[in-house]
Design goal:
The complex is a heterodimer. Chain A is α/β, with parallel strands linked by helices. In chain A, 29% of the residues lie in helices and 17% in strands. In chain A, α11 packs across α13. Chain B is α/β, with parallel strands linked by helices. Chain B has a single domain, classed as Alpha-Beta Barrel (Aconitase, domain 4), CATH 3.20.19.10. In chain B, the strands form 2 sheets. Chain B has a 7-stranded mixed sheet with strand order 6-5-4-1-7-8-9. In chain B, strands 2-3 form a two-stranded antiparallel sheet. The radius of gyration of chain B is 18 Å and the shape is globular. Classes of the chains: A alpha/beta, B alpha/beta.
Chain lengths: 449, 194
């Protein structure tokens, strides 16, 4: 019986499945961070349980930490101090590796997992964060979980799961100039809608996906949750193995991963096709990632009224040329070296017209960017160059929009208030964001290429 | 966790589709190391004129006098999309809600809700429309978990689906961790076999 990539990994990890009950699924790698783990450790203590496999657990601090030098000072906000203390103490007591503030490897959880080679093909990977799907780019089954489930995995290295359905996203054709992985996934979100793939695991396939770098594949998988798919995956290939080779925790032998692909004739529960050759740079106009359109398009006439009222936009009008207040380049979607290089290619020798934050995804990315002189390009253009963290994607670390401000952001969510109460978000690629920073307006990067 | 069987409760309507976890519990207010006491941050950006000072917005449905004491929220389609933060069900439960009625729920939210004794009740679009109308008047519904029925105020009984395992846990008031722990021997065997 031919199997999908998802089914192969699922079957490999079922410890037991009793009738009427969900499967007990073994988890190979558990990533934790400061925002969603304290209550899980507290739960363990209350039951007198220990962390079963600290060796299969890794921690970082990313959501609440400032991306300014302030982070190296004692924390003034007692809530921040308490959360930092909590993860540091919990990791120390359990013997879990923590890539904390000041650690050279510290960074956004979905950036450092792959960077360290912790993320590997064929694994089951979970984290108390919905963008865990990012790791699916390596041919892993990776998905976000709640804090109660974090507790389950800490205690047992297992989760109770019902088998999800499968959703094929086939992307074919050659991407036009100025159109990137971010535009592919924004186009998928626009086509499927915010809850369109609820209950499914997505697999991205087709020659366009094969031609993407690992960084680009991570951008695609990262936003699977934004159309409802709890996980998104891409079969591993030589691109995957080349990326992983030599990383600190990476395996030495990759040949055994070649079986991790969807067999010919395997069936998906749902399927869509995207013609990459016809894609344009994408932006969002509304208050969820499914409300997206091509950069030059007009806002659809049937766009939800509540969303347009919040955004202050009008149906039937284009957004190209609309003035903006802030540009944010960063987040687990677009904060990797390739994203920064793209932004720098536009910003080099130009000046930004609005406040522009550029936030690398990890310490190693920051240093690599600086070794290439990208930081100088950004600072000379008038942008702020920061330390690694979630920054303005989530507005709980000091980086946030003021009421009413409009931000072109490379992050993953344009929900109301996501970047700060009353803040308005337009999601876009790093290229589009950089061009918009230069013009102080929503801009079409293709005129710069 | 308290066992759930049958209960009658006052309703409140939020007829907005795709209510995401950033609306249910804005990130800024989730900097906590505890689960309890989050009821006050529920829908913070919508519910308060000034969320920091908690000055209520009188136009928000939960703030209307008739909605006080509501235990059943009837919300638009695809409730709970967005982040995995369990702060969302913690806040809904902390506020006093015991069930959310919608046409669909985001996967992670549904899973989180069930682990906190909050029932995500999926109904068909027509029943949903009627439930919303009735909840706008804060009428009372009866939830019967063992029978898997939701009785609207008009008497219309709607049956709903629920994962049989989750139902057993909720009706007995037990959590899932005990079940996983009971498979310790199998887990150890699995680890040795790899």
């Amino acid at each position: 019986m031919p199997k999908t990539l998802f089914e192969k990994i699922w079957d490999d990890h079922v410890v037991t499945a009793e009738p009427e009950c969900p499967a007990v699924l073994y988890i190979d790698l558990h990533l934790i961070h400061e925002m969603t783990s304290p209550q899980a450790f507290e739960g363990l203590r209350r039951r007198g349980l220990k962390v079963r496999r600290p060796d299969r657990t890794a921690a970082t601090i990313d959501h609440i930490i400032q991306t300014t030098p302030e982070r190296f000072q004692p924390q003034k906000d007692p809530r921040v101090a308490a959360l930092l203390h909590s993860i540091e103490e919990n990791c120390r007591a359990a013997g879990i590796r923590l890539y904390g503030v000041g650690d050279e490897q510290q960074g956004v959880v979905h950036v450092i997992g792959p960077e360290l080679g912790l993320t590997q093909p064929g694994m089951t990977i979970v984290c108390g964060d919905s963008h865990t799907a990012t790791h699916g780019a390596f041919g892993a089954l990776a998905f976000g979980i709640g804090t109660t489930e974090v507790e389950h995995v800490l205690a047992t290295q297992c989760l109770l799961q019902r088998k999800p359905k499968t959703f094929e996203v086939r992307v074919t054709g050659r991407l036009p100039q100025g159109v990137t992985a971010k535009d592919i996934i924004l186009a998928v979100c626009a086509k499927v809608g915010i809850g369109g793939a609820n209950g499914h695991v997505a697999e991205y396939r087709g020659d366009t996906i094969r031609a993407l770098s690992m960084e680009e594949r991570m951008t695609v998988c990262n936003m699977s949750i934004e159309f409802g798919a709890r996980a998104g995956m891409i079969a591993p290939d030589d691109t995957t193995f080349r990326y992983l080779a030599g990383r600190p925790f990476a395996p030495k032998d990759f040949e055994r991963f070649r079986r991790l692909r969807t067999d010919d004739g395997a069936a998906f529960d749902a399927s869509i096709d995207i013609d990459a050759g016809r894609l344009e740079p994408m932006i969002t106009y509304g208050t969820n990632p499914g409300m997206g359109m091509a950069i030059g398009a007009s806002i659809p006439g049937d766009a939800p009224k509540k969303a347009l009222e919040y955004m202050g936009f009008e149906a039937g009008k284009p957004l190209l040329g609309h003035s903006i207040d802030v540009v944010f380049i960063g987040s687990c979607t677009n904060s990797r070296l390739g994203d920064l290089r793209q932004a720098a290619s536009v910003l080099k020798g130009r000046k930004v017209k609005v406040r522009t934050l550029i936030v690398p995804g990890s310490g190693p990315i920051k240093r690599a960017a600086e070794a290439e002189g990208l930081d100088k390009v950004f600072v000379e253009a008038g942008a702020e160059w920061r330390e690694a963290g979630c920054s303005m994607c989530i507005a709980m670390n000091g980086d946030e929009l003021k009421e009413g401000e409009i931000c072109v952001a490379t992050s993953n969510r344009n929900f109301e208030g996501r970047q700060g109460k009353g803040g308005r978000t337009i999601l876009a690629s790093p290229l589009t964001a950089a061009a918009s920073a230069v013009e102080g307006r929503v801009a079409d990067v293709r005129t710069y290429l | 966790m308290e066992p759930i069987s049958r209960f009658r409760g006052k309703t409140v309507a939020l007829a907005i589709p795709n209510i995401d976890t950033d609306q249910i519990t804005p990130a800024k207010f989730t900097m906590v190391t505890d689960k309890v006491g989050l009821g006050r941050i529920l829908f913070a950006h919508w519910r308060y004129r000034d969320a920091e000072k908690q000055i209520p917005n009188p136009d928000f449905p939960l703030n209307k006098p008739g909605a006080q004491g509501a235990t059943i929220l009837v919300a638009g389609d695809n409730f709970g999309c967005g982040s995995s933060r369990e702060h969302a069900p913690w806040a809904l439960v902390g506020y006093g809600l015991r069930a959310v009625v919608s046409t669909s729920f985001a996967d992670i939210f549904r899973s989180n809700a069930l682990k906190n004794g909050l029932l995500p009740i999926v109904v068909d679009p027509e029943s949903h429309r009627q439930a919303l109308r009735e909840a706008e008047g804060n009428l009372e519904f009866v939830v019967d978990l063992p029978e898997q029925t939701l009785a609207l105020a008009s008497g219309r009984a709607v049956s709903f689906a629920i994962d049989p395992f989750a139902k057993r846990c909720l009706v007995q008031g037990v959590d899932e961790l005990g079940y996983i722990l009971s498979h310790e021997r199998r887990i150890a065997e699995y680890e040795r076999s790899r």
